[in-house]
Design brief:
Elements (H helix, E strand, L loop, with lengths): L10 E6 L10 E11 L4 E12 L5 E13 L2 H8 L5 H11 L6 H16 L4 E2 L15 H15 L3 E6 L18 E9 L2 E9 L4 E6 L15 E2 L2 H22 L5
Antiparallel strand pairs: 1-2, 2-3, 3-4, 5-9, 6-7, 7-8, 8-9, 8-10
Length: about 260
């Protein structure tokens, strides 16, 4: 064993279990990742372990190693971590974006990913709006589909500022490329303190779903239409919409005087 002390400058902002990978049938990998920061840099302290087990699942051999690496930026840290996959990078950013750490820079990277994850729950299924349905041949079906999408977004925690059947009112430059299913409109909404531009589409079976234009589950990926922090005016607007929703909800549950 090499004896020594590792000194790390800064305060802890994240902690995660490293991705175990595939170490073989006889080996089990483990360890812990700790992320520290100062005002000017980031330090990753990595503890990695590996143990070999016999046929009766008893450990017979093991080793551990510790490494400390300092990076000038989160981009540099990301570039190093994702060489072997994105799992460790994602785990660290997610940890730092939540309690007990809540680092604002890590939250800024995680929020777009969490929004995309939330949108996985945005689907509404309407067979009467499927590709072969008569409703698809009638006027106004896109407006109906968009309205269903907006209602579902509100159910899962989004605050919808506006919705448009005409896509370019929200995406002036268009979507630049083929969208796999017919687009029924676009939405501008708020989530997690960010303003997001979203696309609403429908598949042949009648599934209406909402996605960001640049869906990505890797924190820090470049996006053409990234979420933007809400302005003071948008924060006030979002709160007013929430108050209206609560009032409407109370009105629907209160018994009638008749």
């Amino acid at each position: 064993m090499n004896e020594g002390r590792i000194d790390v400058r800064g305060w802890q902002v994240a902690e995660a279990e490293p991705y175990r990978g595939f170490g073989g049938y006889d080996y089990q990998r483990g360890g812990r990742l700790f992320l520290f920061r100062t005002a000017t840099d980031w330090t990753l302290l990595s503890l990695r372990t590996r143990a070999r087990y016999e046929q009766n699942d008893h450990p017979v051999q093991g080793e551990a190693w510790v490494r400390a690496s300092t990076y000038a930026s989160l981009d540099d840290l990301k570039s190093d971590l994702i060489q072997d996959g994105t799992e460790d990078w994602r785990a660290l950013v997610k940890s730092g974006a939540g309690e007990p750490y809540y680092d604002p820079d890590l939250m800024r990277l995680w929020a777009p990913v969490e929004i995309d994850q939330d949108l996985d729950k945005s689907s509404v299924y309407r067979r009467d709006l499927g590709a072969r349905s008569a409703r698809r041949q009638e006027a106004g079906w896109r407006e109906d589909a968009l309205g269903l999408a907006v209602a579902r977004l509100e159910e899962i925690g989004f605050v919808v500022f506006r919705s448009e059947v005409e896509l370019r009112k929200v995406f002036p430059r268009g979507l630049s490329g083929e969208w796999s299913n017919p687009v029924v409109g676009a939405v501008v909404a708020a989530r997690l303190g960010y303003r997001v531009q979203l696309v609403v589409a429908i598949d042949g079976a009648g599934e209406i779903y909402t996605r960001s234009r640049d869906t990505s589950f890797t924190p820090g990926e470049r996006r053409r239409y990234p979420p933007r922090p809400l302005t003071e005016r948008e924060l006030d607007l979002a709160e007013e919409i929430r108050r209206q929703r609560r009032a409407e909800g109370r009105g629907q549950t209160e018994p009638s005087d008749d």
